């Protein structure tokens, strides 16, 4: 099966540097071959395990946690561009993916 | 092949919890200074982890129960991936495979049933504002709203017109407001709508395109926008053209939809269960306990008020949909004649922060006095039962005597008759 | 012996007995860092306030806190408020966090002093530290060799006595493998035993913070302090922490039944593992060979699940709220994200991600059956000793291949130790002692016992 890494790179929004795509394609192809080994195992009747804690119903009650709250200054402190209390980005032309 | 309007609604409702869906930040973001209400979790900082809000889960299930849904006893939160500046983690925590509620329904006044596909819980995105700064087109992002709990309600494409959509939305709003879980205000954004519209053979046999409309922020615009869009699509179809599959906005001044973005392919959201959040596993008892917490829903409540207090249907409907007015009515219905009280409230002739004026109060009929008179005049009651209905005048007189004549005799008669009916049924 | 060469337990006792001050202890570490780290490159960022903090502790006096005055190094994927945190990735080159990881807070509350942030594979994507965006850390035993990864900086810092203990994190092997390659003790607690809040996420369903130390006794002490339920992390266990560093003694191995998985006896290290097995047998334990799932499957499971979760966890780095934009990502992050996104995408989800999670169930069930019969298992950590610089570039799956012997235990969320058990060609070999979930105390007791019988953990690199 031939999968194009350029399409995947767009999907994960990771711009590729010149020359990277060939190497990534080769790496992807060999890795895919290795993981395809799983096809050999019969799992039709097996349940999936998405997390190994065996925990259920972990939630918090509707009570404020002010100790974690940031001031506006803290929230903005790591941003490259801010404007009057907002994070600033170039106008987004396109809607969600 | 005959085509008909086929509309499905996707509605988002902001829950009025105290805190966020996955963090302890205040969920009250309206009108606050930007980015003053964030924490590592809702700002999407590295290393931050979500912990679900129990209240939000309960309220989402209650909305589902009020819409006659089946509640899934096992459900999970899933990550929905896409890139946009208002989505700090690059994915939204939502529900995909195992939502809390599925397969419900809501009927319109005509009796037509609108099927509910699902009711699920997710987190809201940040707010974006477009502005030109120093000649450049920029976007300002405010994360106060990020992480606020949202309930998403999706209908099957059973709606056939703007009017039906409006009726559905109003009914849904009234139900959700009666639960006390959201203000459901379209102008304030605590209720949002995205209809999907096409002309198709039927809700089961959809056409090969559909158009999504955004920015409909009132019931009136929703109805107008849907009707305009149906007309626009019909014209294209009549010309043998297929409307483009796209997202369109609504311009209320022009009363028209306009093209915003063409959807070539559907997005690949790469859903998978969020490994940071263990699954939710509920018991039947837990769900049934939530069901007992449901208040009487507006429609059933209105009907009951008509029967019990002889209110007109429209008065009863107005009362049943307004929590404040309803509470006031319930508080004073034994002191003031209910019909009169209801009318005063509905005609806005009463201050809801004050008890009812003495004049109104004095004319009310105390139900205990009715009971007392019936008890003390058992032989008169017996005569009434044998068919001598004229004895009612005597019983009314007895009530008037006990109350010093200060009450409305017509209401006394109504009350006596009603009480006699009840006793009759009870043998 | 110089103060920086002490263990945590020795140093804490020394401070209590007022044999030396906190400032002297911290200074000894700083002197060592100055002497060797230019070459070894274990640290990315140093805490330049440490001497002031040490002075303050000396002034207020020993208050009895378990780690009072103890200097430590912490992997740069743990957020430290006010102290630059990069996860060795250029994307976070300028990131100074506004909050701290729970693990870090617990250590500071216990009185410990942070020397600085250590180097790692960028985003923890590796088993060598060579894929750091800031250049590799070198192995203190032989600087032509890699320290292992992804917690290579912390492992090297402990091995070279630049600190008294280090903190790392494991997604699969990232604490135990660099510990093995650098000849120190590495401990991976059960998944969910230690909070991940404030740790740059790699694979959310396996990430486990853990200590790198000079002895198992130290590892027990550190783990006790950092372990426990955290309301900010929904995957932490509410079970009480049953680790007791004061009752590690008394293990005598009599009657213990130990498994020796045949599939893991590959490579040069096997000989030394079999010698270690003899030590256990001579104490009265029974060691029996067992067959576990073929590693070609467990590598596949781990590669898919981890890369899927990686591709998702890297989505938040868009340069808007912090850091640089996505054009700053290095090669390996892209490499892993592509396979991850593919395995989650429409049409492939069932065959790849879902399939991997189904086989995961099989791996968990296999271990459940194993631990009904056996107390724990022994194996190498790594097929052989440290590899030379440049080795990580030899395969697109280098990281996953190196950790083949520990991935199953990470997939199942088990707990395990790496303890030094020999030297090959001047490079250390680590022994894997792995047990069931929440068997921390048992594993630590066994590891401590082994370190009473052997002296491998006392071997130091010649710097």
TrEMBL record, chain A:
Domain of life: Bacteria
A single GO BP: regulation of translational fidelity
Cross-referenced SUPFAM superfamilies: Glu-tRNAGln amidotransferase C subunit (SSF141000)
InterPro entries found in the cross-reference section: Asp/Glu-ADT_sf_sub_c (IPR036113), GatC (IPR003837)
Pfam family, one: GatC
Identification of the protein by name: Aspartyl/glutamyl-tRNA(Asn/Gln) amidotransferase subunit C
Source organism per UniProt: Candidatus Beckwithbacteria bacterium CG1_02_47_37
TrEMBL record, chain C:
Domain Amidase intervals: 24-444
Keywords carried by this UniProt record: ATP-binding, Ligase, Nucleotide-binding, Protein biosynthesis, Transferase
Active-site residues from the entry: 75, 150, 174
InterPro entries per UniProt: Amidase (IPR000120), Amidase_CS (IPR020556), Amidase_dom (IPR023631), AS_sf (IPR036928), GatA (IPR004412)
UniProt key word ATP-binding: yes
One Pfam family cited in the UniProt record for this chain: Amidase
EC supergroup of this enzyme: ligase
Reactions accelerated catalytically: L-glutamyl-tRNA(Gln) + L-glutamine + ATP + H2O = L-glutaminyl-tRNA(Gln) + L-glutamate + ADP + phosphate + H(+)
Stretches that traverse the bilayer: none
Record-stated family: Belongs to the amidase family. GatA subfamily.
Protein name: Glutamyl-tRNA(Gln) amidotransferase subunit A
Gene symbol of the encoding locus: gatA
């Amino acid at each position: 099966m031939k999968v194009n890494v350029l399409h995947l790179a767009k999907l994960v929004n990771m711009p590729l540097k010149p020359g990277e795509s060939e190497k990534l394609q080769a790496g992807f192809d060999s890795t895919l071959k290795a993981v395809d080994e799983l096809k050999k195992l019969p799992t039709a009747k097996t349940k999936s395990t998405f997390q190994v804690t065996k925990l259920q119903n972990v939630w918090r009650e509707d009570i404020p946690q002010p100790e974690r709250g940031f001031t506006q200054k803290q929230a903005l402190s790591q941003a490259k561009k801010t404007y009057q209390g907002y994070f600033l980005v170039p106008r987004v032309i396109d809607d969600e993916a | 092949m005959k085509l008909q309007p086929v509309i499905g609604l996707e509605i988002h409702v902001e829950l009025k919890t105290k805190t966020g869906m996955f963090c302890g930040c205040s969920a009250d973001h309206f009108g606050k200074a930007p980015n003053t209400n964030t924490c590592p979790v809702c700002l999407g900082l590295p290393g931050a982890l979500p912990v679900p809000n129990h209240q939000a889960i309960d309220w989402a299930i209650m909305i589902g129960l009020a819409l006659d849904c089946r509640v899934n006893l096992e459900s999970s939160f899933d990550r929905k991936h896409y890139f946009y500046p208002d989505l700090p983690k690059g994915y939204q925590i939502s529900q995909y495979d195992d939502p809390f509620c599925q397969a419900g329904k809501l009927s319109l006044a005509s009796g037509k049933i609108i099927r509910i596909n699902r009711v699920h819980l997710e987190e809201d995105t940040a707010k974006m504002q477009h502005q030109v700064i120093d000649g450049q087109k920029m976007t300002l992002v405010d994360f106060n709203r990020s992480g606020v709990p949202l309930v998403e309600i999706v209908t099957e494409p059973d709606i056939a017109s703007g009017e039906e959509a409006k009726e559905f939305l109003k009914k849904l709003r009234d139900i959700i407001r009666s639960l006390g879980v959201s203000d459901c205000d379209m102008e304030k954004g605590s209720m949002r709508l995205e209809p999907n519209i096409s002309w198709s053979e039927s809700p089961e046999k959809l056409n090969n395109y559909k158009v999504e409309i955004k920015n409909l922020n009132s019931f009136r615009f929703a109805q107008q926008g849907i009707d305009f869009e149906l007309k626009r699509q019909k014209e294209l179809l009549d010309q043998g053209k297929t409307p483009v599959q796209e997202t369109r906005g609504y311009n209320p001044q022009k009363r028209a939809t306009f093209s915003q973005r063409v959807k070539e392919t559907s997005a690949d959201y790469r859903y998978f269960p969020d490994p940071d959040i263990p699954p939710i596993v509920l018991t039947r008892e837990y769900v049934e306990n939530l069901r007992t917490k449901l208040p009487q829903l507006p429609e059933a409540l209105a009907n009951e008020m008509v029967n019990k207090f002889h209110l007109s249907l429209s008065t009863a409907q107005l009362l049943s949909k307004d929590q404040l007015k309803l509470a006031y009515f319930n508080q004073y219905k034994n002191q003031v004649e209910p019909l009169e009280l209801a009318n005063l409230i509905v005609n806005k002739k009463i201050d809801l922060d004050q008890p009812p004026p003495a004049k109104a109060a004095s004319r009310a009929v105390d139900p205990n006095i009715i009971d007392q008179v019936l008890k003390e005049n058992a032989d008169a009651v017996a005569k009434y039962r044998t068919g001598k209905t004229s004895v009612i005048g005597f019983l009314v007189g007895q009530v008037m005597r006990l109350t010093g004549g200060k009450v409305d005799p017509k209401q006394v008669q109504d009350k006596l008759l009603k009480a006699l009916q009840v006793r009759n049924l009870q043998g | 012996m110089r103060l920086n060469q002490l263990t945590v337990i020795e140093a804490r006792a020394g401070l209590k007995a007022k044999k030396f001050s906190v400032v002297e202890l911290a200074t000894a570490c700083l002197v060592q860092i100055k002497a060797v780290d230019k070459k070894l490159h274990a640290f990315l960022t140093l805490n330049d306030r440490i001497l002031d903090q040490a002075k303050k502790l000396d002034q207020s006096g020993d208050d009895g806190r378990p780690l009072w005055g103890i200097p430590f190094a912490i992997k740069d994927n743990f957020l430290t408020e006010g102290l630059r945190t990069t996860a060795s990735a250029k994307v976070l080159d300028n990131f100074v966090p506004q909050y701290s990881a729970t693990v870090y807070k617990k250590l500071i509350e216990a009185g410990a002093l942070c020397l600085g942030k250590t180097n790692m594979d960028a985003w923890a994507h590796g088993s060598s530290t060579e894929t750091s965006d800031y250049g590799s850390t070198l192995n203190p035993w032989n600087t032509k060799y890699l320290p292992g990864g992804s917690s290579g900086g912390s492992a090297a810092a402990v091995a070279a006595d630049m600190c008294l203990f280090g903190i790392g994190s494991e997604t699969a092997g990232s604490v135990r493998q660099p510990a093995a390659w650098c000849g120190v003790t590495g401990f991976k607690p059960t998944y969910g035993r230690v909070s991940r809040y404030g740790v740059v996420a790699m694979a959310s369903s396996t990430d486990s913070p853990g200590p790198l130390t000079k002895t198992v006794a130290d590892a027990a002490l550190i783990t006790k302090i950092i372990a426990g339920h955290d309301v900010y992390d929904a995957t932490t266990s509410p079970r009480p922490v049953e680790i007791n560093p004061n009752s590690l003694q008394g293990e005598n191995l009599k009657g213990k039944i130990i498994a020796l998985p045949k599939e893991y006896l590959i490579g040069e290290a096997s000989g030394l593992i079999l010698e270690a097995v003899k030590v256990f047998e001579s104490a009265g334990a029974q060691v029996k060979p067992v067959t576990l799932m073929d590693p070609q499957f467990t590598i596949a499971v781990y590669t898919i699940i981890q890369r899927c979760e990686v591709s998702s966890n890297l989505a938040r780095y868009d340069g808007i709220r912090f850091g640089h934009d996505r054009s700053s990502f290095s090669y390996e992050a892209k490499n892993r994200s592509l396979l991850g996104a593919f395995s989650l995408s429409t049409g492939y989800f069932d065959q790849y991600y879902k399939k991997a999670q189904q086989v995961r169930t099989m791996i968990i069930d296999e271990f459940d059956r194993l631990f009904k019969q056996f107390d724990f298992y022994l194996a190498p950590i790594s097929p052989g000793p440290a590899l030379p610089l440049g080795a990580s570039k030899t395969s697109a799956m280098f990281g996953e291949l190196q950790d083949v012997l520990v991935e199953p235990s990470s997939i199942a969320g088990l707990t395990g130790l790496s303890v030094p058990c020999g030297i090959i060609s001047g490079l250390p070999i680590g022994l894997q002692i792995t047990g069931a979930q929440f068997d921390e105390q048992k594993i630590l007791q066994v590891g401590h016992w082994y370190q009473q019988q052997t002296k491998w953990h006392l071997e130091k690199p010649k710097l």
